[in-house]
Amino acid sequence: MAVDYTVRDGVAVITLDNPPVNGLGHSTRLGIVEGVERARDDASVTAIVITGAGKAFSGGADITEFNTPKATQEPTLHTVIRAVEGSAKPVVAAIHSVAMGGGLELALGAHYRVAAPGAQIALPEVKLGILPGAGGTQRLPRVVGLETALNMIVSGTPVLSEKLAQTALFDRLVEGDLLDEAIRFAKDAGARSGPHPKARERAIEHPNAEGFIQFARNSVAAVAKHFPAPHKCIDAIEAGVKEGFDHGLAFERQCFLALVQTPESRALRHAFFGERAAGKIADVPSNTPVRAIARVGVVGAGTMGGGIAMNFVNAGLPVTLLETSQEALDRGLATIRKNYESQVKKGKLTPAQLDERMALISPTLAYGDLAQADLVIEAVFEELGVKEQVFTKLDEVAKDGAILASNTSTLDIDRIAAFTKRPADVLGMHFFSPANVMKLLEVVRGGKTAKDVLATVMQLAKKIKKTAVVSGVCDGFIGNRMIEQYFRQSLFMVEEGAMPQQIDRAIEAFGFAMGPFRMSDLAGNDISWAIRKRRYAEQPGLHYPRIADRLCETGRFGQKTAAGWYDYQPGERNARPSKFVEDMIVAYSKEQGATRRAISDEEIVGRLVLSLVNEGAKILEEGIASKASDIDMVYLTGYGFPLHRGGPMLYADTIGLYNVERAIRKYAAQQNGDAWKTAARVTGLAAQGKGFNS
Ligand code: 3H9
Question: Where is the 3-hydroxyacyl-CoA dehydrogenase C-terminal domain (predicted)?
Answer without folding.
Answer: 476-568, 604-678
